[in-house]
Every structure is written in structure tokens, then in C-alpha cells.
Specification:
Elements: E1 5-6, E2 12-18, E3 20-21, E4 33-34, H1 41-55, E5 62-69, H2 77-90, E6 94-95, E7 103-108, H3 112-115, H4 118-124, E8 128-134, H5 138-143, H6 150-163, E9 167-174, H7 181-195, E10 199-204, H8 212-216, H9 226-242, E11 246-249, E12 252-254, H10 262-269, E13 273-276, E14 281-287, E15 293-300, H11 304-314, E16 318-323, H12 326-337, E17 345-346, H13 364-372, E18 376-380, E19 386-391, H14 399-406
Helix pairs in contact: 1-2, 2-4, 4-6, 7-9
Length: about 400
């Protein structure tokens, strides 16, 4: 396929979930399974094409495509090509005409098998790579139960360049048991030096219920103290700034505006996204039975075989189609908006909720206190009406707690 597409504002994003991994990471609670030995790739390709064709039946305007998982770099490149050909034919997407491209991202692990496929993925239409490095320490990679080693990660860095990828994001995890601030600073600097990414996703290791890491906490593993985690977060922000990156979301850092992840911003700004594949979530607008245009949350069948059978039978894998209330939407906009460190929550995004007031959902007295104590800044018009709320440098590390205090 290999073509690039022009992006238009407020276009929906398309998320495609590939649920299989070589190994299951100790910290991950996503919908994932160990890849079977005899996977029927053609059947998967056909199921993806069928669900996409059904979901884009009304010529939806698409502004980004994201292959996530699981480990989508285990897919065959021809499957990726078929998916993008289908999107190109079904959605309102124009061929490349200027510098604004539709972002097409593939999550990948730096194993030898997957990195050998990078040229083929680039030819299939992938123009942005999200590489799950996670750590530059082999002991930590074994603790995470990752499928790659440090030497493979270093080898992958050369193959990324050879494959022609200019947009590369790397994932790293900090706040690991036993990790110090100096160790994290050194590792972060080294990773940036090796991969020269234009984007960084830097996540605090979080104990997710049901994961091996969560089960071992307090038994064989001790989580870092809160004060240490706060110092490590400050180190993250300071080090990335020194190396030329700006923070635009709690865990996201970019070289410049064009390096910001388009797809994830759709989640944070309340823009529609369509979920394809087992367990994929979506947020879409459509007419209800009375003809009213409203927003729905979708959740697909999680188990791969059951999802595929439903798609083959009905054309889609949706298990839950749930209408969202104005309260649902506003709460979501506040929660995700406050994670955006430069934009924050903007009142203009509430236009999709109809005639609702911020005071119905936000504790304005608590907001005033958080503003006075330097955790939040509030943008106001001359009339004193609130038009935006943003976390300060002091407030960003505590944004989850602050959000809970704000919402009624």
C-alpha cells in the first residue's frame, strides 16, 4: 500500500488491537494472550477488514491509525497493508498533498524477529514507530518478563534508521523497585542518545490489579516510597527539558509540536475514536433509535476466537454499546484535559455536551483553593467566566489526586 494521507481537523482516530505477545509482561493488564503456534493470519486479516468496513460504512473522516496491543509488530506486514488499504478505501482520506500526514503508528518490540520486519512495515504504510524499550537493564527486562534483551534493543536502533522511520517514540518505565534517581537519569539520557527519538512516553511503574507485579508487592517486592517517586518525576521533567523535549502530557514528551502523538490527543481532547479488534474500546457519535445524534462508548468482545466468530457472523465485534450522558462526557474531559500539561482542560470542548454548566460537575470552591495554593491555574474571560483549567508544575505530579478532589 505505502501511501501517506492528508490529515484533517477533528477527524476520528482508528485504534486496531492485536492481542498476542510472545511473552506476558509482569506489569501489563491489557487484553493480551500468548501468540498461538499456528495462527491463521489470513483469517485475522479478513476479520480486521470486515470490522473496519462495517465501522467506516458512513465514510468517516479518519485522522490517525494506531496499531496497539499486545504486540502488533508480530502481525504479518501484509495484514497491516490490507488494513490500511481498507481504511483508505472506506474512509474520507485524501492522498498526501502537503506536509500534514495522517499519523499511522505501530507498536513494536525490539526483538530480532520483529526488527527484521521494519522495512516491510514501512512499505505497508506505517510512518511512526512506538518502540517498547521499557529499560536498558537486562536484569530489569527479565523482571518485566520482556521478550527482548539490551543487545537486541541496541540492534533495533540501527534497523529503525535503515528502515527509514523518521518519527520514532520510545517507551521507558521508571519507579522500579530498587531504582535510584541517579540511575534513572543516566538510563534516560543513554536511551535518548541511542535511539534519538522525536517522542518519549515515560511511565511510572504502576501496580495494576491482577498482574504478577501487583501480586508480589509486599511479599517479595517493595514499591518505592512516594517521596522517591516525586523526585524521579521531577528528574524526568528536568532531564527531558535539558535534552530538548517539552512535556505536553503527564507521561508524554515531544521534540516539537509536530512530534506530539496525534492519536493519543484524540483520547485526551474528547475526539471520537473507533476501536477495532478483540477487547478494543471506542468512543463514537451516531444516531440513536429516535434519530438523536449522541455519543456512545463501545467495548469489543475480548477473547480473540469469540471476537473473530462474531465479526465473521455479524460484521463487527462490539459487545457493549453504551450511551454517554453529559455528566459522563464532562467528567472525562476534565480528567483527561488536566493531564495535558500545556493545553489543560478547555471549556470550549464542552460544546459537545449541550447546555451544561461546569459548576454542575466541578467543585468551584475547591478549584479556587487549588488555584490559590499554586496547584492549578485558571483562565478567565473579562466577565470572570472560566474558560480553562491547567495544572502547574507543582500540580502535575499530583494530578490524579487533584482531579478526584475537583469532581463532584
Amino acid at each position: 500500500m505505502g501511501s501517506v494521507w492528508a490529515r484533517k481537523p477533528l477527524a476520528s482516530s482508528l485504534y486496531i488491537h492485536y492481542p498476542y505477545c510472545e511473552k506476558l509482561c509482569s506489569f501489563c493488564n491489557f487484553n493480551k494472550y500468548v501468540v498461538p503456534k499456528n495462527l491463521h493470519h489470513i483469517r485475522w486479516e479478513n476479520a480486521y477488514v470486515s470490522e473496519i468496513s462495517s465501522s467506516l460504512a458512513n465514510k468517516t473522516l479518519v485522522g490517525s491509525v494506531y496499531f496497539g496491543g499486545g504486540t502488533p509488530s508480530l502481525m504479518q506486514p501484509r495484514t497491516v497493508s490490507a488494513v490500511l488499504d481498507c481504511v483508505s478505501s472506506k474512509a474520507k482520506i485524501q492522498p498526501f498533498q502537503n506536509e500534514s500526514m495522517v499519523e499511522v503508528t505501530l507498536e513494536a518490540n525490539p526483538t530480532r524477529l520483529e526488527s527484521d520486519r521494519l522495512r516491510d512495515f514501512r512499505s505497508a504504510g506505517i510512518n511512526r514507530l512506538s518502540l517498547g524499550v521499557q529499560s536498558l537493564d537486562d536484569k530489569t527486562l527479565r523482571f518485566f518478563n520482556r521478550s527482548h534483551s539490551l543487545s537486541e534493543a541496541l540492534e533495533a536502533s540501527n534497523k529503525i534508521v535503515a528502515a527509514g522511520f523518521e518519527k520514532v517514540s520510545i517507551d521507558l518505565i521508571w519507579g522500579r523497585p530498587g531504582q535510584t534517581v541517579d540511575e534513572w537519569r543516566t538510563e534516560l539520557r543513554k536511551a535518548i542518545e541511542i535511539f534519538e527519538p522525536d517522542h518519549l512516553s515515560l511511565y511510572q511503574l504502576t501496580p495494576e490489579r491482577g498482574t504478577p507485579y501487583f501480586k508480589e508487592l509486599g511479599r517479595t517486592i517493595e514499591a518505592p516510597e512516594d517521596d522517591l517517586l516525586a523526585d524521579m518525576f521531577s528528574c524526568t521533567v528536568q532531564t527531558t527539558a535539558e535534552l530538548g523535549y517539552h512535556q505536553y502530557e503527564v507521561s508524554s514528551f515531544a521534540r516539537d509540536m509536530s512530534s506530539r502523538g496525534v492519536h493519543n490527543q484524540a483520547y485526551w481532547k474528547g475526539i471520537d475514536y473507533i476501536g477495532i479488534g478483540p477487547g478494543a474500546h471506542g468512543r463514537i457519535h451516531r444516531n440513536d433509535e429516535s434519530g438523536k445524534f449522541r455519543r456512545y462508548r463501545t467495548i469489543n468482545v475480548p477473547e480473540p476466537s469469540a471476537w473473530m466468530e462474531q465479526v465473521e457472523s455479524t460484521g463487527n465485534g462490539v459487545r457493549v454499546l453504551s450511551p454517554q450522558t453529559s455528566e459522563d462526557i464532562v467528567r472525562e474531559l476534565v480528567v483527561f484535559g488536566l493531564r495535558m500539561t500545556q493545553d489543560g482542560f478547555r471549556i470550549e470542548n464542552m460544546g459537545q455536551t449541550g447546555d451544561v454548566r461546569l459548576a454542575d460537575f466541578v467543585d468551584l470552591d475547591r478549584l479556587a483553593t487549588l488555584e490559590e495554593t499554586g496547584f492549578l491555574t485558571v483562565d478567565r474571560e473579562e466577565s470572570e467566566d472560566i474558560v480553562g483549567i491547567k495544572a502547574t508544575t507543582k500540580g502535575v505530579p499530583l494530578i490524579d489526586r487533584i482531579t478526584k478532589e475537583l469532581l463532584l
